């Protein structure tokens, strides 16, 4: 059996086993039940939940994570059989990675101890000093929106909003079972508004105007209200880009903390640099 067929059969077996393992979980008495087992390696339910909660795996679905674990574990076990772990290239990369990982975790600990979150005054000052850096690269729209799964419900909402106000209409119909989603004062860049029919509707709205009922997706009926539009190459109010300003300033502060700490470490250590000249 060649490696490709061997790997394919193992992956197929593991996927089937995942289904059986998930179904059998309720019958397991142990708190740390495993969902997948490949030889001596196991993936437990607790490990899945803990991993999916980490930033590194954010956005991955449960089945994507499980399939990824299966593939990596099978390849790892095959690599062990082939003696990869004993090869000089592997040990060299591993040693280098250990240093980088240890240094990264050490820096993380330093930043956790030091205050790197910028204050509100610092955020405002940075925005004022670097205003041109935050000019918009695309048109931006601040919108209210509601989505219904029933056309008549969407029409009813729009009629109420035109007669009174968006807020009153929403308060009146927020418990309507046909209402499937809503957003208030949500900011969108032009490129984020899809499909084209929806973008065309939004672009043609005047400030505070309420759109007609549109169907951006099959059986999904939407109504929008334009709160404000900010044109490309203009400077938006700070609240619109506050998160960007804060993130940039936070990165700068963290870099400064790390630099100062490194300078101190270099001064404290017996650092000797030899320069060779031809």
Written description of the protein model:
The strands form 2 sheets. The protein has a 4-stranded antiparallel β-sheet with strand order 4-3-6-5. A two-stranded antiparallel sheet has the order 1-2. The protein is flat and about 75 Å long. The longest helix is centred in the last third of the chain and has 31 residues, at 238-268. The chain folds into 3 domains: 3-86; 89-135 and 238-278, no CATH class; 136-230, Chitinase A, domain 3 (Roll), CATH 3.10.50. 11% of the residues are buried. A hairpin with a 2-residue loop joins strand 1 (34-38) and strand 2 (41-44). It is of the alpha+beta class and 278 residues long. Helix content is 53%, strand content 16%. The N and C termini lie far apart (58 Å).
Topology:
Blueprint: H1 3-24, E1 34-38, E2 41-44, H2 45-52, H3 62-81, H4 88-113, H5 120-129, E3 140-148, H6 151-163, H7 166-173, E4 179-189, H8 196-203, E5 214-217, E6 220-230, H9 238-268
Antiparallel strand pairs: 1-2, 3-4, 3-6, 5-6
